[in-house]
Amino acid sequence: MGNMMRNYLILSLLAFGLSSCFLFSSKEAPKDGPAQGEIAIAVDESFQPLVQAEKTAFENNYHFAKLTIRFTPENEAVADLLNEKVRSIVVSRDLTAKEQEIFTREKITYRSFRFAADGVALLTNMANNDTLITLPALKGLLEGRVTDWASIGSKSTKGEVVLVVDKANSSNIKFLIDRLGISASQTLRVFAAGSNPKVIDYVKQHKNAIGIIGSNWISDGDNPTSLGFIRSVHVMSVAEKEGLDKSKYTQPFGYNLALKTYPLRREIKMILKESHLGLGTGFVNYVCGEMGQLIVLKAGLIPLTRPITIRTYQINQ
Questions:
Q1: Nearest in space to 264 (alpha carbons), one of 212, 201, 187
Q2: pTM
């Protein structure tokens, strides 16, 4: 009887040890939490200044957290999320039905958070005084039905219009395709410069160019790089349709984004694929919280998750 009890005790201890190894194995246990660990995030380059500022502030507050950010075109960011190369992405669109099917098939849930609004900005050379454009004219230029400045109402600029975008599969061009109702099979008449800063450089050197960038690159009034960009180009004013008064043409800044009067306004989303309370959740909470939304406001964009109250003080003289 004593031997039987001793053998039973040994087996019980072995079973407990095996189960403990299974429950707490390095393969299964999460290696990160809301304020510690390391994860990768893929971000469309259009939102680089904003997300870089959010990352810096977050890591300064949480010293055991490290965010590795990969700046990549929007569709590649989504592919990285689906292939589990990154924990989260920052893009301007929701997942398509086919992309959502992958999550459903694998029984994995994802969450999408709208946290800021910006706009797709159109730029011209400082020597070009034609700074008004309509959405129908922009669509004609993209599709190649319109090719010269005279065709879009210019009275001073001559010659061919050169449309310049950062990358062929970036969020900037994808947003315009969706917003203007351009067929996915349509061949676009654009030149890809390689990045948003390179688009600005190209416009600075070519009078006939129209640059297409994310307004985040030129909206932060405290950022020396942003100030340098905005002072070296014209930002075009855009109208919904032809025949409108000049007062209906707006730029992608301030209250035009807040009141949704800028025709190329869009919303920035963070999509998270995380099955536990991890660092991805911690970063989302920070970005959507008060401090993260103040960073959005400071960048010249519109916060979407927290109303930011601006207090004014009367100075008695």
A1: 212
A2: 0.84
Asked if residue 80 lies in contact with residue 72, where contact means CB atoms within 8 angstroms, the answer is: yes
The number of residues in the chain equals 317
Query: Strand pairing partners for 119?
Result: 265
Structural domain spans, the chain: 37-117+267-303, 118-264
Spatial distance between the Cα atoms of 46 and 91, rounded to a whole number of angstroms: 9
Q: If you search the block for the tokens 């100030």, which residue do you land on?
A: 227
Topology annotation, domain 118-264: D-Maltodextrin-Binding Protein; domain 2 (3.40.190)
User: Rounded to the nearest 5°, which phi and psi values hold at 268?
Assistant: -95, 130
Q: What's the rounded Cα separation, in Å, for the pair 98 and 31? A: 30
* Residues 73/167, Cβ–Cβ less than 8 Å: yes
Name the CATH superfamily, with its identifier, for domain 37-117+267-303.
Periplasmic binding protein-like II (3.40.190.10)
Residue 30: φ, ψ to 5°: -60, 140
Instruction: Tell me how far apart the alpha carbons of residues 137 and 240 are, in angstroms, rounded to a whole number.
Output: 10
Instruction: Write the pLDDT tens digit of every residue in 5-64.
Output: 444 343 343 333 333 333 333 456 788 999 999 999 999 999 999 999 999 999 999 999
Q: What is the pLDDT of residues 48-84, one digit of tens each?
A: 999 999 999 999 999 999 999 999 999 999 999 999 9
Q: Which residues contact 312 (CB under 8 A, 6 or more apart)?
A: none
Beta bridge partners of 89: 42, 271
37-117+267-303 and 118-264: identical CATH topology: yes
Closest to 297 in 3D by CA, of 313, 282, 281, 310: 310
